[in-house]
Amino acid sequence: MVQGIGRRGFLKGTAALAASAVGGFACVEIASAAPIEVPTVDKLVMRVLIDSAHDQFLKPATVQGVLHQPPGSGRGADYRQVLHNQWGLSLFLESQREAEARAILLDFGYSPDALLNNIGILKVDPSKVDALIVSHGHHDHYGGLNGFLAKYRSTLAPDLKLYAGGEDNFCHRVSPTGAQGQFTDFGQLDRRELAAQKVATVLCETPTVVAGHAFTTGQIKRRSIEHILPNTFVERGIKDGLGCDAGHYSAAELAGKPIPDEHVHEHATCFNIKGKGLVVISSCGHVGIVNSVRQAQEVSGVDKVHAVVGGFHLGPAPKDYLQQVVAEIRKLQPDVVIPMHCSGLNFALEAQAQMPENVIVPTTGSRLTFGA
C-alpha cells in the first residue's frame, strides 16, 4: 500500500474508482471490480457509539487477547447527561499501522439526537473521520447520518465518501403491520441530501479497500445453512426523485407491490489484524453471519478469524435454527464472538453455552481493542 503521504490525501487513491451516474444521481462512483490488495493493520480500536442497551456494572476484561473496556456509568461531565441507547448501531473504528492512523464511522444509529449526544459524552473527535460506511438500507443504521453531517461536515475532509454496498441500499422500505397486506413506511436513504453535503457515494458491490486500512466484502454469497429471517419489504424504482434504480424488475415490482427484502447489497466491514487474523463486522447480518465471514475469508485469502462482531439478526430466530447457526460459527474457530444490536439475548446465551471462553457482550460506549 502507498506509504508516506498525508492522511487526507491518501483517501483519493485507496481504491480504483470510476466516476459514473447511477439512476440519474450525481456524486456516485462505482468501485472497481479488480481484485483488491487486502491491507494489514497493527491495531483496531472499536468504540460502540450506539447499541440497544447500556450496562454500567460491566467490568473491564480481556478475552482471548481482546480488551473490553466498558464506559462505566456512561455519564458525561454533567451528571444530567447520559449515554442514549436505541434500536440501532453505530461504531467508531480507529486503526493503526505503524505511525499511520485512520478512522471510519460505520453506521449511524436510528436518530441523530442519540448519535450526537453519545459522540459528545464519549469525547469522540469527528474531525478524525476519513470515511463513512453504511452497511445496508435500514433506518436504524443510517438514521443519524444526515444529522451528523449537518453538525460536523465543515470539520470533515472535503472529499469525504460514503461507502454503500450497492444500489439496493437506497431502495424504499416498508414494514408489515400484522394486518394482511398492510405496511408502514420505513423510509429510504436520501442521496439528494448526501449530494447537498458534498458527500460522494461509492457503490461497493465488489470488495473495496476503505481508507487504506479496512476492506468491505462486496456482495455476500449465500452458501451456508443460513437464510434471511422475516424483516422489511422493499420497493424498487425511483419515485419523486428518491429510491433505487435496480436495473431489472420482477412482475410484482412492475405492479408496484412491495416484495420481501433480500438485502441484495448488504456488506460487511473487515480488518486484517497483524498476527491475529480477520475482524469481521456484520452490522445486521441479514444474509447470514457465517456467509459474511466466509466471504471475508475468500476475499482476503486469510483463513484465521480473530473476531466476529456486530448484529447477527438472530433475535427472532427459532431455537433449533439458532443452535445450528451458533454451531456453524463455532466451526469457524473465531477467537471471540461479540454480539450487538439485533443478535438477541438468546443468541448471547446460546453462544456462551457452546463457546464459553470466546464471547464478549458489550454495551453502548464499550471500547474494544484488537491487536497490540
UniProtKB/TrEMBL annotation:
PROSITE patterns found in the cross-reference section: PROKAR_LIPOPROTEIN, TAT
Entry-linked SUPFAM superfamilies: Metallo-hydrolase/oxidoreductase (SSF56281)
NCBIfam families: TAT_signal_seq (TIGR01409)
InterPro entries on file: DHPS-like_MBL-fold (IPR041712), Metallo-B-lactamas (IPR001279), Metallo-beta-lactamase_dom (IPR052926), RibonucZ/Hydroxyglut_hydro (IPR036866), TAT_signal (IPR006311), TAT_signal_bac_arc (IPR019546)
Signal peptide: none
Gene3D superfamilies: Ribonuclease Z/Hydroxyacylglutathione hydrolase-like
Domain Metallo-beta-lactamase: residue ranges: 100-153
Protein name stated in the entry: MBL fold metallo-hydrolase
Transmembrane segments: none
